[in-house]
Specification:
- The protein has 494 residues and is α+β, with helices and mostly antiparallel strands.
- Among the domains are: 61 residues; 132 residues, Phosphorylase Kinase, domain 1 (2-Layer Sandwich), CATH 3.30.200; 108 residues, Transferase(Phosphotransferase), domain 1 (Orthogonal Bundle), CATH 1.10.510.10.
- The chain has 17 helices and eleven strands.
- The strands form four sheets. The protein has a five-stranded antiparallel beta sheet, with helices on both faces. The protein has a two-stranded antiparallel sheet with strand order 1-2.
- Strand 6 and strand 7 form a beta hairpin.
- The radius of gyration is 36 Å and the shape is flat.
- The structure holds adenosine-5'-diphosphate and magnesium ion.
- Magnesium ion binds next to loops.
- Belongs to the protein kinase superfamily. RIO-type Ser/Thr kinase family.
- Pfam families: RIO1 (PF01163).
- Interacts with CASP10. Interacts with IRF3; RIOK3 probably mediates the interaction of TBK1 with IRF3. Associated with 40S pre-ribosomal particles.
Length: 494
């Protein structure tokens, strides 16, 4: 009754009648249930791009997320470095003494700077700031001062300060704070363990950077290349990069969906041939390019990474020559540094088989041989080129036609080794088609003559065996020797 009284005398007016008794938990769970129900109905909506995936219960495809994230990180790192470089320049100005921000960089080294400056051992070579400010050396005798104020080199306070000062020599990413300002004194034990920690961090970071620089087998290309590829997608030249078709010693080939370019149409399906920047693979291929007069001049001036770009460029030029002669080969879409984008030979993401893998009936095989013969003649006579790596590995069978690929190493016949390369090509072609039972297949010498239009004759004695022919051949034709010459290149993925 007292309570009713209170309610009735409530100066703010009457209170609404109390709701039927019901526990808070009930109310909550009911509300929650309704809310959940609503949410389930409201999401996903049809305008939501992931909606159909979620509705059908499939996982959205996130396979490229990691790559994207890495690319974004890479781009961020590089932008950071560019900014850093600007600041470094601003900071140093015209000063004769300059300070390097090198250690703050995210990506090592800057693009195209091939300087492999030896790492400076900062622990030993940088000046001790404490000493510089206030020269204070411990004399030989091991103590300074007199009487009561004597300090030995083992003096805790002095040692502690010195240790604090030496912390400034730690790598820049180690935030040591203003120990000096705070008059912080570090014991030797603490200092040493900090130092050890920093050194191991440095090594770890170096390893990380190392991983960044060198491509791993699964990721196939280095971050720099991934960024370039990402930029192509970003610019709309490509819609999507789907996957790797081939990983060879010298290149990695990706399949991609074509996007659009302003001046020219981009095919629906394209390949990206990425020339590998791991330099040593290219060492033994140098002679294909350094003696090619078209590239000779530039070759000698370039650093090794830029030479890789020449390979891509060379393939592009050679492909366009072939296109002019109407030899079936990929169309060049775009060249970007060491990445060549060209049309895809194949259908619906399935690349055309190499001639060595194509299961051809005897008619098709004979037709393939005739095409190859004709193609070699066109290449030599119209394009003024020698393939220099012609074999069943670098010819694809598509639409009942033989398509010629992999022409980055092709040279003009006047190349110092031009005819030698051509002879090797002929040998590969003859051997392949003869083995596949094409009776029309000429022997290597006849083929060589048929391609070049030359008439080099070789008198054969009937009692000569293969070896003799081979040896005779070596005298008559310039043939790659086993020691100096580049190896016959069966693709590394086989
Ligand atoms: P490498 O120098 O590594 O041998 P290639 O140009 O021969 O490079 O390419 C390697 C492989 O990639 C080829 O054997 C072929 O299977 C595939 N490939 C290359 N270019 C194309 C293309 N335009 N269309 C379809 N597949 C291709
Ligand atoms: Mg090849």
């Amino acid at each position: 009754a007292k309570q009713i009284d209170i309610i009735n005398t409530n100066p703010w007016g009457s209170v609404a009648p109390a709701a039927p008794s019901c526990s808070l938990a009930d109310v909550m769970s009911e509300q929650l249930a309704r809310q959940l129900d609503e949410e389930n109905n409201a999401f996903p909506t049809l305008t939501d791009p992931g909606a159909d995936l979620l509705l059908s219960g499939e996982d959205p495809d996130t396979t490229s997320d990691l790559m994207l994230a890495q690319m974004l990180q890479m781009q961020y790192d590089r932008e950071f470095d560019t900014q850093l470089r600007l600041e470094e320049r601003k900071f140093n100005g015209d000063s004769k003494v300059s300070i390097s921000f090198e250690n703050y960089r995210m990506v090592h080294p800057y693009e195209d700077s091939d300087s492999s400056e030896d790492e400076v051992d900062w622990q030993d070579t940088r000046d001790d700031p404490y000493r510089a400010e206030k020269p204070q050396t411990t004399p030989r005798k091991g103590f300074t001062g007199k009487g009561k104020n004597i300090t030995t080199k083992h003096d805790e306070v002095m040692c502690g300060r010195k240790n604090t000062a030496r912390m400034d020599n730690f790598a820049p990413e180690v935030h040591v704070g203003d120990g000096l300002g705070m008059d912080l004194k570090l014991s030797n034990q603490v200092f040493n363990s900090l130092k050890r920690h920093c050194q191991s961090e440095q090594r770890r970071s170096a390893r990380l950077h190392d991983k960044k620089e060198h491509s791993t087998a699964e990721q196939a290309v280095d971050p720099r290349t991934r960024l370039l590829m990402y930029k192509m997608v970003n610019a709309g030249v490509l819609d999507n990069i789907n996957g790797c078709i081939s990983t060879g010693k010298e290149s990695v080939v990706f399949h991609a969906d074509g996007g659009s370019l302003e001046e020219q149409p981009v095919p629906d399906e394209v390949v990206l041939k990425v020339f590998k920047t791991t330099l040593n693979e290219f060492k033994n291929r140098d002679r294909y390019i350094k003696d090619d007069y078209r590239f000779k001049e530039r070759f000698s001036k370039l650093n090794p990474r830029k030479v890789i770009r020449l390979w891509a460029e060379k393939e592009m030029h050679n492909l366009s020559r072939m296109k002019k002669a109407e030899i079936p080969c990929p169309d060049v879409v775009l060249l970007k540094k060491h990445i060549l984008v060209m049309s895809f030979i194949g259908t619906d993401h399935v690349p055309a088989p190499k001639l060595k893998d194509a299961m051809l009936g005897s008619d098709d095989m004979r037709s393939a041989y005739c095409q190859v013969l004709h193609m070699m003649q066109q290449l030599y006579q119209q394009c003024n080129l020698v393939h220099a790596d012609l074999s069943e590995y670098n010819m694809l069978w598509h639409d009942s036609k033989v398509w010629l690929i992999d022409v980055s190493q092709s040279v003009e016949p006047t190349h110092p080794h031009g005819l030698e390369f051509l002879f090797r090509d002929c040998r590969n072609v003859s051997t392949f088609f003869q083995k596949r039972g094409v009776s029309e297949a000429m022997n290597v010498y006849d083929l060589f003559n048929a391609v070049t239009g030359l008439n080099i004759t070789l008198r054969l004695h009937s009692n000569m065996n293969e070896d003799h022919v081979q040896r005779r051949g070596k005298k008559t034709f310039p043939v790659a020797t086993d020691d100096g010459g580049p190896p016959l290149k069966p693709d590394a993925d086989d």
